[in-house]
Each structure stands twice: as C-alpha cells, then as structure tokens.
Design brief:
The chain has about 200 residues and is an alpha+beta fold. About 30% of the residues lie in helices and about 25% in strands. It has 2 domains: about 80 residues, Ribosomal Protein S8, Chain: A, domain 1; about 80 residues, GMP Synthetase, Chain A, domain 3, CATH 3.30.300.130. The relative contact order is 0.13. It contains 5 helices and 9 strands. α3 packs across α5. A hairpin with a 5-residue loop joins β1 and β2.
Length: about 200
Amino acid sequence: MSAVPMHPEATDDPQAVRWVVPAGTLPVVGEIAEAPDELGEMLRSEGVAAIEVETRAVMIRLADGRSWSRAGARVRDALAAALRQPREWRPAAAVGEDDVLRAALRDVLDGSIGDYIRSHGGEVTVVSAHDRRVEVRMAGTCTHCPAAGFTLHSRLEAALRDRFPGLVELRATEEPAKAATRTTWLTLRRRGSCPPDPGRP
C-alpha cells in the first residue's frame, strides 16, 4: 500500500497532536487498544498515552514527560507505517460500520456545517444512522426554508460523504409546524342596545 497523506494539527493540549488523514483511511473510530508495529510498541510502552481515531484524523497524545520536539519525528514515521496496515488497528471497544457513520455525522454536525446551520437559527437532529443511510430532522428556521434543500445536499451531504464515502442516502424530514391558533372575535353589544324581545309588551 502506498503512503497515506497526512499532516499534523496542533491542539489545545500540548501533549496531543491531531494527524489529519483522508476520510476512510481506517475502518475504526474511537480509542485504540492496539496499533501495528512501532506505533503499537509506543502505546504498550506508555511512551504514547493514548491514540484516538476520528473520521478524518488520528489524535495521538504523548505520555507526560515526553515532548513532541523529541518524539515527533519517530511518532510521525511510526504512524505513517501503521496507516498502511488499516486492518491491524484494534479499537478499545467493538466498532461497526454504523459506529463509523455516526462518528462522521457527529463530526459534521459539531463542526463548521453545524455552526453555519445554527448561525441561521436552524437545527438538525439525527433521527437514525445505519446501513449507510442517514435520516435527520430539520427544525427552527430550516423548517420550510427555500434554501434547506441546498444546505442539506450541497453542504451537509457533501461533508458527510467526504468523511464516510460509503454513504448511500441522506434524507431529511421537517419538524411538524405547530398548529396554528385560530382567533375568533366576538362582537359584544352594549347594554341596552339589544333589539326588543317581540314576545314582551
């Protein structure tokens, strides 16, 4: 297998670096219990404190007392070699394709696409995500918005497909509109203005 393109991103934690990789590089998400070759040895020897796989990145946290200035090149090379063996990565908990799909969807909705939707007063919640199909519910200003279809397909679906290339379908339902309250106006007559009762003298 050829080399997998990757590049590092700093995080708020000085011990952790997020290594960005193409979506779908690894068939697992979440905390990793075992990685191939030298990267796995680092994890077992506690030089690397934790490895967590995201849909488009591998987060590696060094053990306390270790520094990226000293260990960075070795970790980079070990990660590059390990990425060429995607079937040898073992998650700490059982992970299926649906878990990878849900992680990709969460990544999209928690990121810039979700921020864009929320900034316009919209809301997207997950109804279901399984068998490579996703259903979401659009609410807030997304309900009956003429641009909702564009947002759904050109933004949300494109970002999700980038993270989960096997996506078959993204479907949206709208939150039912609240029942309109009908106001009935009653005309009240003033006292003494009622018409005379024909049965009274």
